[in-house]
From TrEMBL:
Residues 2-245 form the ABC transporter domain. It comes from the Bacteria. SMART domains: AAA. The keyword Iron-sulfur does not apply. Keywords: ATP-binding, Cell inner membrane, Cell membrane, Membrane, Nucleotide-binding, Translocase, Transport. One of its GO terms (molecular function) is ATP binding. InterPro entries: AAA+_ATPase, ABC_transporter-like_ATP-bd, ABC_transporter-like_CS, ABC_transpr_PhnC, MetN_ABC_transporter-like, P-loop_NTPase. The keyword Cell inner membrane applies. This is Phosphate-import ATP-binding protein PhnC. The gene is phnC_1. NCBIfam families: ABC_phnC (TIGR02315). It comes from Roseovarius indicus. One of its GO terms (cellular component) is membrane.
């Protein structure tokens, strides 16, 4: 369904993403790992067309989406909704309106200006919030919610777009372990129950191992590992994180694994 072919992004002389290729045949939960500057965010931003590729192709269900423009590009951006580390909500706007923003790509500017949302969209937004366990916060301003709750609003906004793919750039990096687990559980459910593909940049190995069916490791813009969590041995992890000593078990084996004990 998704075919990434030799995707490359150069910033001047710096090649941030270097001929990355991989295929997703069926809905999957994929974690992308790698040290800072490996090119993880740039890769996701190219997939979502937030930034243009220098070379290569993104083919989704047989259609090249690499160079789409205007309404076609916006439709693709709905098909692969993105979630960010810093939630990117409108802080002073209420939660439901933030979720309804997820339909913007498909609506007229005029309807948007006057906040005219169809009743069925409002019901759907509330249903999604309910499913994520935060419907009670619907009328509150987004800024009044905790980080974990805000990230779940961001997930609701993404789901509102009815995406085939959910892209998440370090979705739990700003959250405490408890909320990190809730958000990862939600992403997993969105994959399993809705059959959506989730591609998440993750900063800890344990999270990738625990939640993903497939892990892609990047180093210096290239894919250096693509396999199952079981294949991701400590030796492989050391390769992914580089041979200069920046990898250590203690810096990467954090947080979520210990939660079962803490919150059981
Ligand atoms: N807008 C930009 N202009 C110039 N260089 C950029 C830009 N965005 C990213 N880069 C460079 O591209 C490379 C990859 O950056 P990227 O943000 O994709 O890495 P990352 O793997 O997401 O890192 P982190 O784990 O710190 O988020 C880095 O060398 C970075 O400096
Ligand atoms: Mg990044």
């Amino acid at each position: 369904m998704l075919d990434i072919k030799s995707l490359t992004k150069a910033f001047g002389r710096n090649t941030a993403v270097d001929a990355v290729s991989f295929t997703v045949d069926r809905p999957a939960m994929i974690g992308i790992i790698g040290r800072s500057g490996a090119g993880k965010s740039t890769l996701l931003r190219m997939l979502n067309r937030l930034t243009d590729a220098t070379e290569g192709q993104i083919v989704f269900e047989g259609r090249d989406v690499t160079a789409l423009k205007g309404a076609d590009k916006r439709a693709w951006q709905s098909d692969c909704a993105m979630i960010f580390q810093q939630f990117n909500l409108v802080p002073r706007m209420d939660v439901v309106s933030n979720v309804l923003h997820g339909t913007l790509n498909r609506r007229s500017t005029l309807a948007t200006m006057f906040n005219l949302y169809p009743e069925e969209d409002i019901h759907r937004a509330i249903d999604i919030l309910d499913r994520l366990g935060i419907a009670e916060h619907a009328p509150k301003r987004a800024e009044a919610l905790s980080g974990g709750q805000q990230q779940r609003v961001a997930i609701a906004r993404a789901i509102m777009q009815q995406p085939k793919i959910v892209l998440a750039d370090e979705p739990i990096a700003s959250l405490d372990p408890m909320n990190a687990q809730l958000v990862m559980d939600d992403l997993r459910r969105i994959h399993e129950e809705d059959g959506r593909t989730v591609i998440a940049n993750l900063h800890t190995l344990d999270t990738a191992r625990r939640y993903c069916d497939r892990v892609i490791g990047m180093l210096h813009g290239r894919v250096v590992f693509d396999g199952t969590p079981a294949q991701l041995t400590t030796g492989v992890a050391r390769d992914i994180y580089g041979a200069d000593g920046s990898f250590s078990e203690s810096s990467t084996s954090t947080d979520i694994a210990s939660l079962d004990r803490e919150y059981a």
